[in-house]
Every structure is written in C-alpha cells, then in structure tokens.
Amino acid sequence: MTHVVLESCIRCKYTDCVDVCPVDCFREGPNMLAIDPDECIDCAVCIPECPVNAIVPEEDVPGDQQHMIKLNAELAPRWPSITRRKSPPPDADEWKDRRGKLSELIR
Amino acid sequence: MTYAGEPPVAQPQGAAAASHDRDAPGDRIETDAVIVGAGPVGLFQVFELGLLEVKVHVIDSLSYPGGQCIELYPDKPIYDIPAVPMCTGRELTENLLKQIEPFGATFHFGQEVTQVERQPDGRFHVETARGTRFLARTIFVAGGVGAFQPRQLRVDGIDKFEDTQLFYRVKDPAQFAGKNLVMIGGGDSALDWSLNFAGGVRGDSPYKAESVILIHRRDGFTAAPASVARMREMCDAYQMQFMVGQATGFEERDGRLAHLRVTGSDGVTRLVPLDMLLVFFGLSPKLGPIAEWGLALDRKQIVVNTETFETSVPGVFAIGDVNTYPGKKKLILSGFHEAALAAFGAAPYIFPDKRVLLQYTTTSPKLHKVLGVETPVFD
Known about the structure:
The complex is a heterodimer of chains A (107) and B (379).
Chain A: E1 3-5, H1 16-20, E2 26-28, E3 33-35, E4 55-57, H2 67-75, H3 92-95
Antiparallel strand pairs in A: 1-4, 2-3
Chain B: E1 28-36, H1 40-51, E2 56-59, H2 68-71, E3 77-78, E4 87-88, H3 89-100, E5 106-108, E6 113-118, E7 124-128, E8 133-141, E9 147-150, E10 166-167, E11 180-184, H4 188-197, E12 211-216, H5 225-236, E13 241-244, E14 246-253, E15 256-263, E16 269-273, E17 276-279, E18 283-286, E19 297-298, E20 301-303, E21 316-318, E22 323-324, H6 332-350, H7 365-371
Parallel strand pairs in B: 1-2, 1-8, 2-5, 8-21, 10-17, 11-12, 11-17, 12-13, 20-22
Antiparallel strand pairs in B: 3-4, 6-7, 7-8, 9-18, 14-15, 15-16, 19-20
Helix pairs in contact in B: 1-3, 1-6, 4-5
C-alpha cells in the first residue's frame, strides 16, 4: 500500500503535506507533487494537510483517478525530494477547484 | 495541544509519575522493561506486561501520554476499538490510563530516546536526550510514526535565530517578560501564551511582555472560543494586537532579528518590529533516531516476527504503527494484540527460570491480586 497524490495537486502544489511527512517521501515536480510508493509508510498524517484533498490511500483512489497510482510511482523516482513547505504557484487558488487537469501536468 | 494551561489529558494516576523534571542524570535505572512511546499501544503494553508482573518505565517525547491519539485527533471519534462503539482519542487515552493504574508504571515524559546499546551481559543501555539512563532487560518500541516535533516556520534563513530570538515552545516564561513579542499561530498554545504575555486572563500575569502582536494566516482560530473572545477584548483595550497575515521574510540589524515581514491578506507586506518570535504551528511526527538503532527495517518500519513481535535484535520488540510484517494493518486494535504477544515473547528474557502461562482476568485469583480487585464468588 501507499498513499497517492491525485490530479487535484496539478498547478496547485500547496506543499503543506511535505512538512508533516515523518519519512520525507514527497517528491517535487514542476507543477505537482508525487509520493514515492517505496518510502510512504501509510501513516495518513498528510491527508488532512492538503487544502485541496489531493492525497488519498491507494485503496481509496477514485475510479477516474486510477492512472495516478501508476503516475506517482513513475514520476517519484525522477523528481527531487521536497521536505520543506514553500510558497504555492501565484495562480494556485485559480486552479484549485478545476477538474481534469492531467493535460496541465509538466513531467 | 497546550503547554500553557492544563495538560490535555489527566496525568497517569497511581503511577510513580516521574516527570522529566525529576529525572536526575547520573543514576542509571535498572528495569525489566522500557517502553518507548506512550501512545495507545505503548500504554496497553504496560497492561500486558503488568499482568505478567513486570514493572516498566515508559518514555515519550511528548509531555503527556496519548501519542497520535492526543496530538493528531484528540476529539475525533474512533469507531473500531473492539467493544467500544465510539470514543475519542482523548477518551481512549484516559481509559487506557485508568486500565493500567494498578501496575504503577513510571513515566518519563518530554524526552526522546537517543541511544540504545546492547551491553555485554545482554541487557540494553537506553539513554534519552535529557540524559536519563536505563539498564533494561527488554525494550518495547511503540514509537508510532515517530517522535512529535514542532512544525517549523518556513522563512528562508530565519533558522539561525532559533533558541536566541525564535522559539517553538516556552520553557521559561520569564525570558519573554518585558520584551516585544510576536506570536504566530491560531491554536490553543498560540492564544494561551499570547494572553499570558499580554497580561494574563485576569490581568495578573507575572510574565507581562512589553508588547504582544499575534499573527495568524486567517481571522479564524482552532483555539478555545473563550480564549479567542478574551484575545479580542484585549485587542480592543490596546493590551495586544492581532494581525491577519503570513511571515514571508525578515530584516536583520547587527546580527539580530529586528523585523518580521508579514504579508497580509490585502497583499501588502508590513514590517513588524520584535525582540522575540514565538511560533506555534503544532507538532508533527518524525521517525528520527528509531531508524538508527540497528534494527532490521523495511521501508523505514521495524521488521518483526508475528509470533512474539520481536525485532532482529533479541530482547527488542516492536509493536503498533512502527512495525511491519506480512499483512500488517496500522490499526490500534492490531497494536493491542501485538502488545499481548510481545509480553509473552519477552517473558523468557525477564523470567528465564519460570514458565509463564496464560491466565484469564475473569478467573485467575493471581491476576485478581495483580489487578488489585476482589476475586468474584461463583455460585
């Protein structure tokens, strides 16, 4: 099992989650975060931190977001570790309620 | 969570409740068992060892028992404790403390275990950050997802003022008296200490600061409503100030933190002068040194066998969220089961010459004696 960052994170990247991760398993892409499934210990501490509810346990990934399980696993090893919160993109709030942001993802 | 007011749960009763203040470095405490972590599973380990008549010492980095239950979800309902249809994290902790009362465990709060070393005689030297030292036959690691640490203020370069002008907890309130203080946060700790330094709820604080400015990112608080109301009254009476905003930078003068840059919800950045900065962003767990005790790990969790919950090091057991094994589920109820089996697993180390049998609390007169209860008469 692991926890998974869903599409909601794309272009929002608030990074509140990284501060609380006890094992530093978040990875930072240009406009989204990913969880390294080999590092996550399923403690669930990050879930309530995300202002856009982008983090769920693998078992709770909605049907239309199943591709994100694979995408987290694929992107995490390529992206650098992020362990400290930073400012979100200036237009994060404009993107937080949008759906179907996968085409916006920069790998 | 609060440091200023009352502890969030009743302190352990009947326990030789050693507070960290009373732990004098120097004397090494000899004991049959040390439990690392006073969360629900660590507390239940006290019970299971207690039934086997093992006296224990419990260490926790927090200043109070309860672990994640108290720190992360004290008031949220838990529905999956067997035979308890619903209870909160706080209630679970209080019930466990009541349940372990007969066993007189000694608690060492507010200290993190920094060192675990096997001695030539097979026992373990355990040492905490405060210098409390133990010589233990067995160790039970119930460390959850790690020791709780204050969440840091994320402003580049401000770390260098930590412990001189930037603080995450109040150890000695006197050091802030008469100073110009900036406090950040919206929880009980931030509010309680702001009120205290602004003169006290009844205007009788011995630690009155020169000035107090409270900053929170929004005009809404998780602190007790009464504290928030009192804070607003004190602002109206010019005894303190409240600003909505976030710290985004600082200005330094002669190597001292002179001003904090605070960006308000209006987008305007203001310079706030200060002597001391107190940040209360709550606590979050970090696995930390447990990962360096030489125990076999898998994905940063301690590998155990499911017969005794012993780790790769004989005499060291791991229970609750900190361990892993095939099929592991991070549930409190699983941790309780693990504690029972770990206690029996440890018995051969503690009582090498004794056969330890399973007895039932319903029927065993010996256990009734241990629990300090009357043996019921069966008709």
